[in-house]
Design a protein that fits this description.
The chain is mainly alpha-helical. 52% of the residues lie in helices and 6% in strands. It starts with a helix and ends with a helix. The mean pLDDT is 90.
């Protein structure tokens, strides 16, 4: 299973913020350090803020920082927030769908994937 670049960048942003020890960071600085489009990273930060993972403050002295302790940010929850429709295959239009067991197999695999991710926090991935 492969996550989108959007989710990859979200995880990179959270890790960068966790490394900042609670201080606010400018999106432009993270974007430059990670070689990511500032505009794209702003959209990701907005989505993370709406999901409650980061706090964003506009204006002078503003920036972004984690809204919670890294130990309280679950990697599985981040991925679910960033990829709510994370399907492995699209069976729409397949003539075999009524006689095929693959959708059930893929659903179980996706569930196992989500279960493993739910076991880790941002703090856990910072240790490695």
């Amino acid at each position: 299973m492969q996550l989108t670049r959007h989710t990859d960048y979200a995880l990179r942003l959270l890790i960068a913020l966790a490394q900042s020890d609670g201080s606010r960071m400018a999106i432009a600085d993270v974007a430059a350090a990670q070689d990511i489009s500032r505009t794209h990273l702003m959209k990701i930060a907005n989505q993370l803020a709406h999901a409650g993972f980061i706090e964003a403050t506009r204006g002078r002295g503003g920036g972004i920082r984690l809204a919670r302790d890294p130990a309280d940010i679950n990697i599985g929850a981040v991925i679910s927030a960033m990829e709510p429709d994370c399907g492995m295959v699209d069976c729409a239009g397949c003539a075999l769908v009524r006689r095929c067991g693959l959708p059930g197999v893929f659903a179980r695999a996706r569930g196992a994937f989500a279960d493993v991710l739910a076991q880790y926090s941002l703090a856990d991935v910072m240790e490695g």
